[in-house]
């Protein structure tokens, strides 16, 4: 592809407006996530406890903004001030949970629709991460750790509020902590935040901002579609295993076990000789 044409496409992606189409895709997949988390009793729960269902869903939809605002000492409910966005989110929730014959749910679950919505949501995620890093950079220009934290939370806030979201629905799962088992989306948002910081604050990345942004969008979309179509859920795991082995005691633990077994065998040999 011609470099100028590629750069033009990248610029168009950067300028994409998220509302309403990308918001609809995001909300639809959030509703699908809540419904699948409820399991086989989702329909009965939504009929019996519509308020709890709606509140938990809204927390998933606006989790990134709420958590980030809480950490930045800004109004936690500020993400809910956009009334059109709130109405769209509520409408999508109603369609997924309450349409006759479950048509809304079946439509979102339909693979071609799910693939399109998933690609749109990853573009939405990239925008959220970038906005989070930019906002944190304005408040704390030299606090790179804060920029990374806010960008990561904006990208996958729902992962960090899963405990509260389930608690709203009356389910207590204390082991559902994103810090203990970070999902691919948290790791990807973390990496994207670091890249955006390097792009904004250093000279290490010489490429135009639009290309950097577009590259991260492609990264998000590619691995999301790979997880749906090919079942590749977390490409970071091999690198994590290598890092743990080299820097977090893995190799030393293995060596200790090997030498421990060797010493144990030597002790057993000596005991046999003494017996004889």
TrEMBL record:
One of its GO terms (molecular function) is identical protein binding. Keywords: Ion channel, Ion transport, Membrane, Potassium, Potassium channel, Potassium transport, Transmembrane, Transmembrane helix, Transport. It is found in: Endomembrane system. The chain crosses the membrane at residues 54-72, 84-101, 179-198, 210-230. It comes from the Eukaryota. It is a multi-pass membrane protein. Pfam families: TRIC. One of its GO terms (cellular component) is membrane. Belongs to the TMEM38 family. This is Trimeric intracellular cation channel type B. It comes from Phaedon cochleariae (Mustard beetle).
């Amino acid at each position: 592809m011609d470099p100028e044409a590629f750069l033009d496409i990248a610029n168009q992606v950067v300028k994409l407006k998220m509302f309403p189409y990308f918001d609809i895709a995001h909300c639809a997949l959030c509703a699908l996530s809540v419904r699948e988390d409820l399991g086989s009793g989702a329909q009965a729960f939504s009929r019996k406890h519509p308020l709890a269902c709606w509140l938990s869903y809204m927390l998933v939809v606006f989790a990134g903004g709420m958590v980030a605002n809480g950490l930045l000492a800004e109004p936690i409910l500020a993400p809910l001030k956009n009334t059109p966005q709130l109405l769209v989110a509520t409408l999508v929730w109603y369609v997924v949970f309450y349409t006759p014959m479950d048509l809304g749910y079946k439509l979102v679950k339909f693979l071609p629709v799910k693939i399109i919505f998933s690609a749109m949501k990853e573009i939405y995620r990239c925008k959220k991460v970038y906005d989070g890093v930019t906002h944190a950079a304005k408040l704390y220009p030299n606090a790179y750790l804060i920029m990374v934290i806010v960008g990561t939370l904006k990208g996958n806030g729902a992962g960090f509020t899963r405990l509260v979201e389930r608690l709203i629905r009356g389910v207590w799962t204390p082991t559902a902590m994103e810090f203990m088992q970070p999902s691919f989306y948290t790791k990807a948002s973390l990496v994207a935040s670091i890249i955006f910081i390097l792009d904004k604050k250093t000279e290490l990345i010489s490429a135009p901002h639009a290309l950097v942004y577009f590259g991260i969008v492609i990264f998000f979309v590619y691995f999301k579609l790979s997880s749906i179509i090919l079942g590749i859920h977390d490409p970071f795991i091999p690198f994590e295993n290598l890092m743990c082995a080299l820097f977090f005691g893995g190799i030393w633990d293995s060596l200790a076990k090997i030498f421990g077994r060797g010493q144990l065998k030597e002790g057993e040999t000596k005991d046999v000789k003494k017996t004889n």
